Amino acid sequence: MDPLLRAHGLTRRFGPGCPACLESTGARAGTNRCPHCGSVWACRDVSLELHREEALGIVGESGSGKSTLVRMLHFDGEPGSGFFELGRIPALEGVPDLYPEGSPWSRNLLSLDRFRQRKVRDAAMGIVYQHPHLGLRMGVSAGGNIAERLLSAGWRSIGEMRGRAADLLERTEIPTERMDEPPRNFSGGMQQRVQIAKALSGDPPLLLLDEVTTGLDLSVQARVLDLVRALREELRLSMVVVSHDLGVIRLLCQRTLVMKNGQVVEAGLTDQILQDPQHAYTQLLVASQLQ
Amino acid sequence: MLSVQNLSKTFRLHMLGGLEVAAVRDVSFAVEPGEFVGLSGPSGAGKSTILKMLHRTYLASQGSIRYASPRLGEVDLVSLSESDVLELRRTEIGFVSQFLQVIPRVGALDLVAEPIRHRLGVGTDEARERARELLLRLRIPANLHDAYPATFSGGEQQRVNIARAVGWKPTLLLLDEPTASLDRVSAGIALELLSALRDEGTTLVGIFHDPELLSRTADRTIRIGD
User: Fold this and answer.
1) How far is CA B199 from CA A245, B182, B195, B221, in A?
2) How far B37 CA sits from the closest chain A CA (Å)?
3) Would the CB atoms of B86 and A269 count as touching at under 8 Å?
4) Tens-place pLDDT, residues B127-149
């Protein structure tokens, strides 16, 4: 499998930073907040690689930086520092001056202007958040939410957009007769499925899932996971899956990163992480699982 | 096909103050292409740990595992990149344990058909047909084929597991007590299937709970832990 995405040195810091930060934060220090200057290192010097049609899991407790990491990849919020490049994707060939002549990799996406970052995001990525209100406009109809996304991807015909929205909602098991209702009328599981439909509307090769099943009832969780698995196979998606639930990671991901206090403490094949964890924190995490 | 040299594994248990447990010490052996080799030795000798290192589910502490991959050439499974290990698991190396690796809410037939379809590039109908034959041969009645194996008995789960492992004809198949809770008849059928796989060119390395069963089927036995 060819690599699709590679990143290194991803860092997002809130606060001024000081010379003591490096020593005083991270997994070894047991905190991501520097006691000297008060800066928070939400994500520090993270490297990762994702191959095509592969799913990479990111696990860790809350505050470990896993959501920050996936949001950096989605250009959400404050820009951080580091290198983030995508391999050649047909959908991105139209973005001006993205790939240096003859290079299989894009320029560093973190140093692109906002306009081109948006283009890259719309064409190459979809994201599903734990909280549906981050990914959906709750007062706008389900179909309208999808149309909005299609508009920004350059679609113009209302009929075609409705057709595409109906198709996506059907695939995500939302009855199409409810496409004109706003998501706030829907149950939590349905809202997640509308989010998935919206995330996939631009046919992105990369899907980012940020704790998508957290807080859902078990049977609803199962349905969302089954849907993700089916869509991944059908659409040949590559995925980054953030979850604190090792069961979700085991089900979906071939490789996994373990994060703590903003740093990656262990990376490996998912079955190796679960059966032969090396780092003290990973051992604790695996041992804490309900059987 | 496989050359294991000075392989060792020590587990370090951080929750027990960094206690070190030596599970495998300095093991070396070689396996020829097309051989069916059994690992034997007392329980606790590290047989299962060795198999898991061959599959990279466990990281080796020391030593090397040279594997002659038709696709990648000669590689060391101890240090091979993760993406290459995944590639080999997809195309060449299978692992079957005594526990069914269920995918929730996937029926038995689809569970067995999936690797046949993906790894051999066979169409859905044909893959399901081959899966059906395998399950029937392993005495899983047709009325159970669409049921979820999570609800099956231990013996039935093991038979589904074996069907899933042999269906796609891997180059190297690792077997960790795949017949542990099967009755003699079912275990006999499973071993027939494994022998047939060997006759088609698959190399097999396995642990079997029943030494007699092992000596009847395997070409050779390697003692671990002496």
Assistant:
1) 43, 23, 6, 18
2) 25
3) yes
4) 999 999 999 999 999 999 999 99
